[in-house]
Design goal:
single chain; mainly beta; 4-stranded antiparallel β-sheet; 11 strands; elongated
């Protein structure tokens, strides 16, 4: 079994910053892409940012220039630094990873974290 555990959510004022972390644990031989998604109240889940094992990143237009995704491959951890937060960033943020549990596993598994709530409000 593979688990993703997120941390770092909370309440922040507009213009503030938060840093989310997501650590993978369990049966892990290799991790391919990792990413962050979010679901705002009354909306569908959307991509926030992704990062490849080599560090190539991709961002939603709404967060470009404000959010930075990074990862520590040795720790199987992905981070999301969120700056200049806006009320519209309020959402539950989910970590995602493509995990190969064992060397000879037939395919990568898509694993999701339980989500962490980010509330941006004065």
């Amino acid at each position: 079994q593979v688990q993703l555990v997120e941390s770092g959510g909370g309440l922040v004022q507009p213009g503030g910053s938060l840093r989310l972390s997501c650590a993978a644990s369990g049966s892990i031989f290799n991790i391919d892409a990792m990413g962050w998604y979010r679901r705002a109240p009354g909306k569908e889940r959307e991509l926030v940012a992704t990062i490849s094992p080599g560090g190539r990143t991709d961002y939603a237009d709404s967060v470009k220039g404000r959010f930075t995704i990074s990862r520590d491959n040795a720790k199987n951890t992905v981070y999301l630094q969120m700056n200049s937060l806006k009320p519209e960033d309020t959402a539950v943020y989910y970590c995602n990873a493509e995990v190969l549990p064992y060397r000879y596993s037939p395919r990568y598994l898509e694993v999701w974290g339980q989500g962490t709530l980010v509330t941006v409000s004065s």
